[in-house]
Design brief:
5 strands; Meiosis-expressed_gene_1; globular; alpha+beta; two-stranded antiparallel ribbon; 18% strand; single chain; Meiosis expressed gene 1 protein homolog
Length: 89
């Protein structure tokens, strides 16, 4: 029926310290998505707006059509790190 394979994560972990992978996950989860893979599947796009100098996500469209705009610097506060989920495929 559908020839597009839906990728599902094999495992999930909660990080203890901040790094760029945690920042990436935090930005997608704040917008209502699991990660970049789910965002690309739902929005049917390969393009994600990113800041050119560091590669952080710049803008995401939420499921309701509104947009989240992110700063060039770190957005994930220390108190939110343990709430973020990092998925493995």
């Amino acid at each position: 029926m559908a020839d597009v394979a839906v990728m599902q994560p094999k495992s999930m972990m909660r990080p203890k310290v901040w790094d760029e992978e945690v920042e990436e996950a935090y930005r997608f989860q704040l917008a209502g998505y699991r990660d970049a893979i789910e965002y690309k599947q739902v929005k049917n796009t390969e393009h994600i707006d990113r800041w050119p100098h560091n590669g952080y996500v710049k803008k995401l469209q939420r499921r309701d059509g509104c947009f989240y705009y992110y700063n060039k610097t770190r957005e994930c506060p220390d108190k939110e790190i343990h709430k973020t989920k990092v998925y493995s495929y």
